[in-house]
Amino acid sequence: MRIVLRRPDFRLLFAALLASMAAESILLLALAVWAKDVTGSDGMAGATIFAIIAPMTLAPLVGWVVDRYRRRPFFVVANLGTAVLLGPLFAVHDRADVWIIYAVAACYGLSYIALSAALSGLIRQLVPSELLADANGVLQTVRQGLRLVGPLAGAGLYAAVGGWLLVTLAMTGFLTAAAVVGLLRVSESGPPDAVLRWPAELGAGLRHLAGEPALRRALLGYGLGSLVMGFTESLIFAYVDLGLHRDAAFVGVLVTVQGVGGLVGGLVSARVVRRAGELGALAAGITFFGPAALALAYPRLWLGVVALLLAGVSLPLTMVGLNTLVQRRTPPKLLGRVAAASEALVSGPQAVSIGTGALLVGVFDYRLLFALVGMVTTAAGAYLWQHRSLTPPSSAGPRVPIPAPRRPPEAAVDHEVVGTTRRARGR
User: Which residue ranges does the record annotate as region Disordered (predicted)?
Assistant: First the structure.
């Protein structure tokens, strides 16, 4: 990771993403808390999450739009637009205004898809192929770290001061990201001619995912695991209540433990990709979730801590493996559509899984459901591990640029040529 952070262009992008991810982390939970505060309804609070996820159905269209523009200017404009769309939240005062929260949440869901797709292409342009896993690992490490403090900080700020400060901070984060990325100097070729052939252009990303063997198996395996992994969002409350006999607030402690595991997973993810390949890293991440879920079927606090650490390690491994695979196996002209489609194909089953888990936990014993999650995710990980040869590892690691030898004084006349050669090697 230190190698990729030595690159000035990536450090600039990293600073921008740090600002936008911080804004995102304080915003998500706070929107649900805000809806709960003005309506008094748990169901209406939970509907904000649905409003954010629902635009995933438009992922092919959003990905096509992303592919029509250069990545850097699109990323700048999308961050500016995200800051602007948060503005109506200043008008939320009582129950009659809750529709504004839902509208902003839905627009933010669209923005999230667009920003993720554009970011995938921007990283691909800035970072050499051998450093893609390191770049994705750095960003996942930061994202996991922000998950430890961001949502609680956002909810705390809302409770202490109100929504206006929260909105101001979030807008500042996105505006900062736009300003910093605007300083990047990226050599980008123009997008292809804007010819829309329905539905061929919109479905190009899905066709690529289905036609590329490694990507197809990655999404099949991850999709299978996602169908049950979301159960744990509801099961963890039953585990704390019925298993550990503690208050629901103790879930926050376990989420913190999971966040620590996420930091560890982010730090080691690039190394795992180099040693096991992208599919191997994805398989390891999903497989880690299996024993974690099985351990939670046996309610003991020390075992729960170990299980949540494993579950935390799982997420960044899966995301770094999948994102790196998409970036390496997709032509640049399709990357926006493929990234958006893969995000939708992963988030869709997860959303269904969260809703299904909320229903099942009221009917079946939570321990039985945890055992089911453990068996299914272990099977999904085994399926991916069997096909890891499709993405062979690169155990040699990223190449470190070697400085060119010093030229003797008499070669000074060729200094301009030598400088050009050195810059070419640096790429």
Answer: 392-427
